[in-house]
DNA sequence: ACAATAAGGGACAAATTTATCCCTATGCGA
DNA sequence: TCGCATAGGGATAAATTTGTCCCTTATTGT
């Protein structure tokens, strides 16, 4: 795992939540786990754009940050299940708010995001 | 500006909001602008850990995503003021929810964030 | 005359994150 | 027996983001 050279900024609540939620797939992982997709392979099928490796790394970080819990069943083939901790559950309404805003403004968001991409493509 | 080689995932609301809110300082920029810090130099003083260059870049992206508006006064020395657009205003409650959660769980967050850092330092 | 302030951009370097490839292990079904 | 599914990690490369350094313009204060 990468060892930071520059220490994080931890002044306010926004800094703190940023520390645990930053990561390309973390929010979606939390969401899908909350929806009952507990096993790594299920999560990978839900998020096919992510590489297996990175999902594993981000799951591990979420676990170290105590947002999710991991249970390893000692069977073959291996079986692992994740679930939200209480701490993780407390984040659900917040993620929900993010998702609602995104859904509510879906049209406009797609538009402005794509506009910027096209602009850059023309450079 | 960097031209992406891998296209973004834009399936759901969470993907979309992620596109416009990702960036180390973006959420804090929105927050400070909302609080009335309109001029670039004020924002830089509020966020001294960020480099001038990067703040400028992220401000430009927020503007391109129509979350903030920029007014340039044709005077010398230059004067520029940013403000939230209506679209940006609609995000305030969401950011507020993020900040509240972070503040509410400040102790625990610092603890788990630091624990992980120490663990890595020992590697 | 010189430094400070204001805003911002080009060129480049460094940090950080994400992805690709390959390897481990075991039981099940064709 | 071959191949798949299951979970995951090491080594390494590529993508992406962030930071540093320097340069421009014109006015105000010392």
Instruction: Write down the CATH class of one domain in chain A.
Output: Mainly Alpha
> Could you say which structural class the secondary elements and strand pairing of chain A correspond to?
mainly alpha
Shape of chain A: globular
How many DSSP-defined strands of chain A?
Answer: 2
Query: CA-to-CA gap between the ends of chain A?
Result: 36 Å
Rg for CA atoms of chain A: 17 Å
Work out the oligomeric state of the chains in this entry. homodimer
Mind telling me which CATH architecture of one domain in chain A this is?
Orthogonal Bundle
| Total helical elements of chain A | 7
- Largest sheet: number of strands, sense, barrel closure of chain A: 2 strands, antiparallel
Biggest chain pair contact, residues each? A-B, 53 and 53 residues
CATH homolog superfamily of one domain in chain A: Winged helix-like DNA-binding domain superfamily/Winged helix DNA-binding domain
Order of strands across the widest beta sheet of chain A?
A: 1-2
**Average pLDDT of chain A, to the nearest integer?**
91
According to CATH, the fold-level topology of one domain in chain A is Arc Repressor Mutant, subunit A
From N to C, what is the helix and strand string of chain A?
HHHHEEHHH
Helix content of chain A: 55-70%
Strand fraction band of chain A? 5-15%
Q: Outline the low-pLDDT stretches of chain A.
A: none
Task: Describe how the helices and strands are arranged.
The structure is a homodimer of 123-residue chains.
Chain A: H1 13-21, H2 26-34, H3 40-46, H4 52-64, E1 68-73, E2 79-84, H5 86-89, H6 92-104, H7 106-121
Chain A binds a DNA duplex (30 and 30 nucleotides) through residues 2, 4-6, 22-25, 39-41, 50-54, 56-57, 72, 75-80.
